[in-house]
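Page 37, continued from 36.
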């Protein structure tokens, strides 16, 4: 039985999913004895590692000290984190070039013509995501701006000062603008800055993060759109490579890069860019009040145009009427509550703008082909 150390953080969903991928590989092949502990990305190496007589290591290395200790063991090892440390370990990771293009195309397809990027000057993957996002934006001839924080900004020493600078940047941007935050952590902070600045998301600023960390994305207000990594697949591929190395195989000539699994669109970027201020105000009102029972009449009281004109404008930009947009927002709220809570249907109907839970359930089935109960069961598997 081979003995393998997993030096992968358990503090983030990305790391935990990679560990599940390793576990799946082991379940399908010869059993391994796995060393695993609760750890953060920057946790120090285990004190015993330098003298360990094991067989292999899977690591996400965040410090030079960790890299030195792993190299000193002389054991086969596979790196799962893009890094500037230059330790020479075989690398399995995400293709950041396709990732940057994916985010850019999502925002371009949303109708945005102005773009920005929020990044940190610390790791190689930031540089790769930034470069490929900007290249795609420049390909289509659109302007972009950047908030490039120093490396220490990943853990700001002064939170309020950090957010004040971010608020000032958000206010300075021409709008509407689509912003690529190079991690979900940055995206979470950016959405907080938008709230402090009084900027409407996604109507004025649309935000997309990276990693699809459920805790960060769903705790953000509004929920953060994010690029989904197939983290289990990464863990599985890294375990397969390590197994080959432990059997005497040669390391690959270059990194093993897997494409991102897609983009999980949530409210932070779920909109078409709208330049017309009256139409933007109407859409923003619907997003904020539809689940509180707002009606078409309430929307029309907000903007000084007829229903026919506003309906025509909304269909031209969103492809939906006023009533259809109200229904869409309400049902999005229903789906979120079904997936994330155990509330009964009557309470969900009340919190989503429906007068009666029976009619909500019937409409839900017609729209999605599932009853609310069936949808909830599917989400909780």
């Amino acid at each position: 039985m081979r003995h393998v150390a997993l030096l992968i953080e358990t503090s983030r969903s990305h790391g935990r999913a990679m560990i599940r991928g390793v576990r799946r590989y082991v379940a399908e092949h010869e059993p391994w004895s796995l060393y695993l502990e609760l750890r953060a990305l920057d946790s120090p190496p285990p004190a015993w590692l330098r003298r360990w007589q094991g067989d292999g290591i899977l690591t996400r290395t965040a410090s030079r000290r960790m890299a030195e200790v792993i190299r000193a063991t002389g054991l086969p090892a596979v790196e799962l984190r893009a890094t500037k440390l230059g330790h020479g370990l075989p690398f399995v990771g995400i293709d950041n070039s396709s990732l940057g293009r994916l985010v850019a195309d999502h925002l371009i397809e949303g109708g945005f013509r102005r773009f920005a990027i929020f990044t940190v000057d610390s790791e190689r993957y930031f540089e790769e995501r930034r470069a490929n996002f900007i290249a795609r934006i420049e390909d289509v001839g659109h302007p972009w701006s950047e908030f490039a924080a120093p490396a220490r900004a990943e853990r700001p020493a002064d939170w309020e000062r950090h957010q004040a600078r971010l608020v000032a940047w958000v206010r300075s941007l021409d709008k509407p603008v689509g912003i690529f935050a190079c991690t979900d952590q940055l995206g979470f902070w950016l959405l907080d800055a938008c709230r402090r600045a009084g900027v409407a998301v996604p109507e004025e600023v649309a935000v997309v993060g990276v990693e699809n960390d459920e805790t960060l994305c769903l705790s953000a207000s509004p929920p953060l759109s994010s690029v989904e990594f197939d983290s289990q697949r990464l863990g599985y591929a890294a375990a397969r490579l390590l197994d080959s190395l432990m059997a005497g195989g040669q390391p690959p000539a270059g990194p093993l890069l897997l494409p991102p699994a897609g983009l999980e669109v949530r409210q932070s970027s779920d909109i078409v860019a709208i330049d017309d201020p009256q139409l933007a105000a109407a859409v923003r009102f619907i997003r904020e009040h539809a689940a509180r029972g707002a009606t078409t009449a309430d929307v029309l009281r907000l903007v000084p145009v007829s229903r026919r004109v506003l309906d025509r404008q909304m269909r031209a930009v969103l492809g939906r009427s006023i009533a259809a947009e109200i229904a869409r927002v309400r049902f999005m709220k229903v789906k979120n509550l079904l997936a994330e809570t155990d509330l009964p249907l009557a309470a969900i109907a009340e919190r989503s703008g429906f007068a009666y839970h029976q009619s909500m359930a019937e409409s839900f089935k017609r729209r999605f082909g599932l009853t609310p109960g069936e949808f909830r069961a599917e989400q909780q598997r």
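The CA atoms of residues 365 and 374 lie 10 Å apart. Flag for discussion at group meeting. The first helix runs from residue 13 to 28.
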